[in-house]
Specification:
D-amino Acid Aminotransferase, Chain A, domain 1, D-amino Acid Aminotransferase, Chain A, domain 2, 2 domains, 14 strands, 32% helix, 27% strand
Length: 262
């Protein structure tokens, strides 16, 4: 999709501009959301916008959520983006950006590694993502890291910048690290709602004892984790498969409701 919406105006993507003096560019001062598009429909749109508003309030950043919603409508009405990602950004300089990005190629399995907890910052979607980008570059260099494992303050060395890993447990149960210091993930909420997942304090011992692990995010839905550090896990066990099916069914039901409402 070769157009973007800048402050309510549709422009060719190559001509999309914001001032170089904007604090969103100079200081990474802004908020954003990324939504998954299914055949042009934005899944969880209202929840994403609500989270964006909370992030802006947390940063004391003025945000016209209704204007962001209109930007989305205008952008998606201008073309049929199919399956893709929708990114919306609001900067401290008062600029709004909406654009459609290609859906990335997802691996069938992920590798994970522990990383320092980012603390309360993980609970808002800020534009400044240097720590995350550095971790990704480091991950590629090490090759064995593909995803960072999320956790609690009680879980030393485990961070939560990129979504949440849920751990399959014995007897077909699963648990998730407490949500106090992790991103308020929309897909995480769905997992907690539709699957037999319980939030608990999670420790390195639990990590070592996990029989399964998976990542849940709006972009990826549910993907199994094949390795944590040097420890191999089954490539998608029964808890992971069942959770994936339930999350997908939830998504499809919401999308069907959107199609009916049109």
């Amino acid at each position: 999709m070769d157009i973007a919406c800048i402050d309510g105006d549709l422009v060719p993507l190559a001509e999309a501009r914001i001032p170089v003096t904007d604090a969103g560019l100079l200081r990474g001062d802004g908020v954003f959301e990324v939504m998954r598009l299914y055949d042009g429909l934005a899944f969880g749109r209202d929840r994403h916008l609500e989270r964006m508003e909370r992030s802006a309030q947390n940063l004391r950043l003025e945000l016209d959520v209704a204007a962001v919603a209109r930007d989305i409508d205008a952008l998606l009405a201008s073309a049929e983006p199919g399956d893709a990602l929708l990114r919306v950004v609001a900067t401290r300089g008062g600029h709004r950006i909406a654009l459609v990005e290609p859906l990335p190629v997802f691996p069938r399995l992920l590798h994970s590694a522990t990383s320092p907890s980012p603390g309360a910052r993980a609970r808002r979607r800020q534009v400044a993502l240097l720590r995350r980008q550095h971790a990704r570059h480091e991950a590629r260099a090490r090759t064995r890291i593909r995803r960072r494992v999320a956790g609690d303050p009680a879980w030393p060395g485990v961070g939560a910048a990129d979504g949440i890993v849920l751990l399959g447990r014995r007897r077909g149960r699963a648990h998730a690290p407490l949500s106090d210091h992790v991103l308020d993930s929309i897909t995480r909420r769905i997992v907690l709602e539709v699957a037999a997942v319980k939030e608990t304090i999670t420790t390195p011992v639990d990590l070592e004892a996990a029989e399964e692990a998976f990542v849940a995010s709006s972009v990826r839905e549910v993907i199994a984790v094949r390795r944590i550090e040097q420890r191999d896990l089954p490539p998608g066990g029964p808890v992971t498969r069942a959770t994936s099916d339930k999350v997908n069914a939830y998504i499809q039901a919401e999308l069907a409701g959107q199609r009916t409402a049109v």
